[in-house]
Design goal:
Rossmann fold, 7-stranded mixed beta sheet, binds flavin mononucleotide
Length: 188
């Protein structure tokens, strides 16, 4: 049954990773902005929902554990939204990148992205990690990150449900709207 096997396997070699671009059947302007999020105590979720409201019909909110490589391939751009936990992006957000990284490598190059980080006092560690991974994917960062520090310091405050100030949600909404507009105009 050699003829049925993918190239490489018949010869006993591992199959090559297929890094070709998907056939462009749907123009970028018609594809969603994927808003991939994770939140432990509600702050990043509120930020993601505000950004989705700004992005209108284009916004596609998806919790990080539900994001598949197909979702990433189908998007015109990305908004990554998560809290900083222990100086890094939250574990579930990282798991999404780990799970999808090689399946889309070389197939989403040049697409726009931005990040929203919920933090207690810092947020830079999570932001840097996302930027490094996005650089690996050759994505294009098209906006400054929005880091919202909620100043929770005690274990009780850190683990409590969060309320994000309206002024910060307005910024997240504006970023969602800007990404939508940039994609619609084809400026990225
Ligand atoms: C286990 C844990 C670790 C945290 N580590 C950090 C940290 O390293 N830096 C920081 O700025 N905030 C840290 N925080 C605070 C959260 O980032 C902050 O409360 C954020 O608003 C939570 O977002 P969320 O409500 O979307 O989960 C930590 C919170 C938890 C629960």
């Amino acid at each position: 049954m050699r003829a049925c096997l993918p190239e490489g396997i018949a010869a006993g070699k591992p199959a090559a990773i297929d890094n070709r671009q998907p056939r462009a059947t749907i123009a970028a302007v018609d594809r969603p902005l994927l808003i991939a999020w994770h939140s432990r105590t509600g702050a990043a979720e509120a930020m993601a929902r505000a950004a989705a409201a700004g992005a209108g019909d284009r916004g596609r909110l998806l919790r990080a554990d539900l994001v598949t490589p197909e979702d990433l391939l189908a998007a015109s751009g990305y908004l990554f939204v998560c809290p900083e936990n222990l100086a890094a992006m939250s574990g579930l957000m990282k798991e999404m990148f780990d799970r999808c990284y090689y399946s889309v490598l070389g197939r989403i190059e040049g697409r726009p992205y931005a990040a929203l980080i919920a933090a207690g006092s810092d947020g830079q560690g999570a932001q840097r990690q996302i930027d490094r991974i996005a650089t690996g994917w050759r994505l294009k960062r098209v906006a400054e990150p929005i880091i919202v520090n909620l100043a929770a310091q005690t274990p009780e405050a850190i683990q409590a449900r969060k309320t994000v100030p309206a002024v910060e949600l307005t910024k997240c909404r504006a970023l969602g709207a800007a990404l939508d507009e940039g994609i619609a105009l084809g400026v990225f």
